[in-house]
Amino acid sequence: MKKMNTRKGVSTIRLLRRLLQEKTGCVLFMVFFVGFSSFRFDVISASFLSVVYTILYSIVHLQINSVYIRADLIEYWIAVTAWCSILVLCCRSIFQKGTNKPIAERLFLAISPASMPNRATVKKSSFGIYSLLLFMGIALLGPFIVPLDPTNQGDLETTRFLPPLQSATASEVVPRSPSARTGNGSIERTLSNVNNDLLEKRVYFTRSEYSKTEHKGAERNSQIVFLFGTDALGRDVFSRVIYGTRISLGIGVIVALLSMIIGLGVGFLSGLMGGMADKFVMRGIDVLLSIPSLVLIISLFSVLGGSIQILIIVLAVSGWMGVARLVRGEVLKLRELEFIHAAKLLGVSSIGIIRNHLLPNIMPTIVTASVLQLVNSIMGEAALSFLGLGIQPPTPSWGNMIGESVIYLGSAWWIGVFPGIALSLFAMSSQLIADGIQECQK
Amino acid sequence: MIIYLIKRILSAIPILFGLITVVFIITRLLPGDPALLFISPKVPFHIAAQLRTEFGLDQPVMVQYGKWLAGMAHGNLGFSFTHQRAVVDVIGNAFLNTAVLAGAAIFLEMVIGVIVGILAIRFRHSFLERWITYGGLMVYTMPVFWVATILLLLFSGLLGILPSSHMHSIGAEQLSLFEYSLDFLKHLILPSLTLALPGAAGLARFVHTQLAITMRQHYITTARSFGLSERRILLKYALPNALLPVITLVGLELGGLLSGALVTETLFAWPGIGRITVTAIFARDYPLILGCTIISGIVVILGNLLADVLYTTLDPRVKITT
């Protein structure tokens, strides 16, 4: 083992292993993000200004004006905050001493100091972690990456069903015209100007109006490349996949959090209490598990009605049983071990026992379960949207994009294939991480 | 043995009871008055009240629950609005179609999964094993509808050799029996493969790890030292031991299979329970939705029971403690 590491000379395998190390990964991330940021730097700086002026406005007036807190602006504020924090985090990790281990190894040791990662596992899981981080970065920075508004329909005659890497002139892509807004005070005026500027700049190439100046005319004739082609309504598939990532990941993360909270609570209580309560809860879980997951989700969803909030609640309510069963099993196993008895004899309170003795030992199970829960909830949402029940168009999600594409499979394969690749890549990376954590415990 | 069987069957009854209760609770969650689903808003108030008495909706919840249970015991799942028939009749026809599809899928799943798992062990430490591991992982994590999309794209779109939907071609009734069944098989391949592939990949993963553990056992080393061929060791001595848990796995996967059938049947226009559920949802036909939920639940409970019983009968080492 040691000899392999000290071998001199550069080989491809060593280079590849380097890529998985934390610092190299961070440098790559930096290069990637700075690279695409340079294309859209005007939008990033505009949103930065917008955040700064809004904060300034609320400090000066000591109140929050709801006119300036709008959904379409908040999106950009979150994105610019994420952009700055990614930059800071990457820099911190690059210049920190003694952190240059493969990222998976650090994660494994953080989850449980007793884990013994081998090299193959670390390699696999590092790939998974990086791809998951990339997905999260894309989801957070979505507004800065998309070249076009995901619901923006082009001139149908010329821009629909364009295959990947085809281009169209900007005038064929219908522009949006944000409404102008002016305020009274000087900061207020600057703020509304800044916000209008941001709203104008946010869609690549398509400025607010067809202006008469020659400068804008030249812009209208410039070419827009559709990286992943366009769909039946002339919408850019690339932008839709990225916004779909935001929707799918957002719902997935919330659902996974909710169902983990329910599952952990029920599992702990049932495992610690034991007796009749435990038996009762377990039979209840058996009952809920006996209904196939998708059937349960669909029947609950159809009965309760169809908003996104209901979708999230239904997915969470029908997803916690597996976690509860798993956690209860672990708690029952650990409860009878000597060190727990010893802690009890020493007079440690039950909360202390849970926090200091049970939780650290269950941590690998919890992390594995939550990663898989994330995948499951994304899959549940995707299946519902695929059937036309979940996220309703024109809002894009991976599931409903694939669902919409099925009719055009024979003629336009690219509409469904790209969201599908994103979906399976995400699921596979999560599975790699979960597998890695489990293998380390053996 | 018989005592164990009876005990196992008895233990399934509370779960069945719970299932029916859960579905009853879901009907209580229905927005508004269930009686209003039957009648138009134009109906005068006193007639609506009369209907409510007729359906027993003015009685206390516990009485309604008792009546619901009694109805279940008689196999009465309610009346479908859209089909204008009893729910049991509607589901009865579809159930057979789903059973054929699921049966074919389980068969394909086991065949593909076990063969791929054996191949991975036979060629272990080679590139083939690595390809099987990663390819299998990819297929295993794919959602059913994405597998279906790929298969449709390949076999129905690009190659054009398999039909993309329905159980029979148009006018298949006039064909001879042989041609008719050939036509049916052609229509069966894509949906059953769609259902089987993710499960098969999971099974292959499982068989692979199980065989890898088994091949390290002492009795395999003994067999090797006797000079038996590697193939004979693998197929005759290692495989039966590794295959036993597969039964439990397939039994547990029945729920996933039914979930997948929901999507697959809708996509391939296969007239089974899954498709009926989805059309019922779009038509807001609540009795039919709940009937399908109950039937799927019962199938899963029975499947788990069967897997348990099979496992204990097939494995002579399992000692039943009664």
Describe the protein.
The complex is a heterodimer of chains A (442) and B (322). Chain A has 442 residues and is an all-alpha fold. Helices cover 71% and strands 2% of the residues of chain A. In chain A, 39% of the residues are buried. Residues 1-9, 176-185 and 204-218 of chain A have low confidence and may be disordered. With 322 residues, chain B is mostly helical. Chain B is 76% helix and 1% strand. Chain B contains 13 helices and two strands, in the order ααααββααααααααα. Chain B has helices at residues 2-28, 34-38, 45-55, 61-73, 87-122, 127-141, 144-158, 177-214, 218-225, 230-252, 254-268, 273-282, 286-314, and strands at 79-80, 85-86. The model of chain B has no long low-confidence stretch (mean pLDDT 83). At the A-B interface, helix 13, helix 14, helix 18, helix 19 and helix 20 of A face helix 1, helix 6, helix 7, helix 11 and helix 12 of B.
Task: Note the topology.
The complex is a heterodimer of chains A (442) and B (322).
Chain A: H1 2-6, H2 12-20, H3 22-39, H4 41-61, H5 71-95, H6 103-111, H7 119-140, H8 142-145, H9 156-159, E1 166-169, H10 186-201, H11 214-221, E2 223-226, H12 237-273, H13 275-290, H14 293-304, H15 308-317, H16 321-335, H17 338-345, H18 350-386, H19 398-405, H20 414-441
Antiparallel strand pairs in A: 1-2
Helix pairs in contact in A: 3-5, 4-5, 4-10, 7-12, 7-20, 12-13, 12-15, 12-16, 12-18, 12-20, 13-16, 14-15, 16-18, 17-18, 18-19, 18-20, 19-20
Chain B: H1 2-28, H2 34-38, H3 45-55, H4 61-73, E1 79-80, E2 85-86, H5 87-122, H6 127-141, H7 144-158, H8 177-214, H9 218-225, H10 230-252, H11 254-268, H12 273-282, H13 286-314
Antiparallel strand pairs in B: 1-2
Helix pairs in contact in B: 1-13, 5-6, 5-8, 5-10, 5-11, 5-13, 6-8, 7-8, 8-10, 8-11, 10-13, 11-12, 12-13
